[in-house]
Amino acid sequence: MHYIDEIKRYIPENEQEKLDQQLILDYLTQHDNGLTRENVVAHLTISSWILNQAHDRVLLAYHNIYNSWSWTGGHADGDGNLLNVAIKEAKEETGLQNIRPLSQEIFSIESLCVNGHIKRGRYVSSHLHLNVTFLLEANDEEPLIVKEDENKKLSWFTFEEALQAPSEEWMVEFIYQKLTHKVLAWKALGKI
Fold this sequence. Notes:
Number of domains: 1
Largest sheet: 8 strands, mixed
Strand content: 25-35%
Number of strands: 10
Structural class: alpha+beta
Oligomer: single chain
Shape: globular
């Protein structure tokens, strides 16, 4: 399925997702290069909410640029297979090799502001990440390997701890709480 159709098919959970989905679709349909970083205003990124096999803890990375605990993820860089990008990025950023999707469908959608920063010695201007998130599972006993050019450390957190550890208040309030509530709802429904 084409990545734009995949985003269109997603059913928003709340007003944030509904508005962000429309923004993302409008932007991607108007710009040919929204799948790559060549578009310096906004481009597609993919994140992962990685649960352990008991589905009671989430893996977070201490991100160098944001100076905060956060989810894993990265740029699509031209790859329209969004789930594959999520898994590839999760493996690269954690060192885990046994990661599997808990669903083939997009789990969450969001438009994220990125402040200007230095990346690999070059300045990157402020821009938007047009983001989709997938729900993944990994073994919490498998060794973690920090990707030092992106993260300082990696750790498994209970859901409560995962909402207290990050220093980015907006991400906690609008994204991580949403993801946590959705995981708990899926667990209650037996979807995971």
